[in-house]
Amino acid sequence: MQLAVDPRRADRERRYKPPPASSAPAEDLTTDYMNILGMVFSMCGLMMRLKWCAWTAVFCSSISFANSRVSDDTKQIVSSFMLSISAVVMSYLQNPAPMSPPWASLTS
């Protein structure tokens, strides 16, 4: 069964107009957030000797590096990455035993 009347309202239609070229798209802050998270986890890994914090810092720094643009500050991204690598190295130099997950202590 077909409707005989078109339910769309012709007086409410508006043509699509693309936004003006002068308006800049919203800036993606994923790189900055992951950079800060990487530094925080690196410092936690170094200070508290938590291996999972150091590995999370490497993960966050990798995401920050992968999402960075050419215009971003490369010194800050590289220093964050090196800080996270040093957190992993230092945590394994102090205790070379394999990492146990943080929730392993809850079950025993």
Tell me about this structure.
This protein is mainly alpha-helical and 108 residues long. It has four helices and no strands.
Would you spell out the secondary-structure blueprint of this structure?
Elements (H helix, E strand, L loop, with lengths): L29 H19 L2 H16 L7 H21 L9 H4 L1
Question: Which sheet architecture does the biggest sheet show?
Answer: none
Structural class: mainly alpha
Helix fraction by DSSP (H/I, runs of at least 4): 55-70%
Shape: elongated
Mean pLDDT level: 86
Beta-strand residue percentage: under 5%
Count of individual helical segments: 4
Secondary-structure element order, N to C: HHHH
pLDDT < 50 stretches: none
Characterize this entry briefly.
The chain has 108 residues and is mainly α. It is 56% helix and 0% strand. The termini are far apart.
Primary descriptors:
56% helix, 108 residues, protein folding chaperone, transmembrane helix, mainly alpha, membrane, ASTER
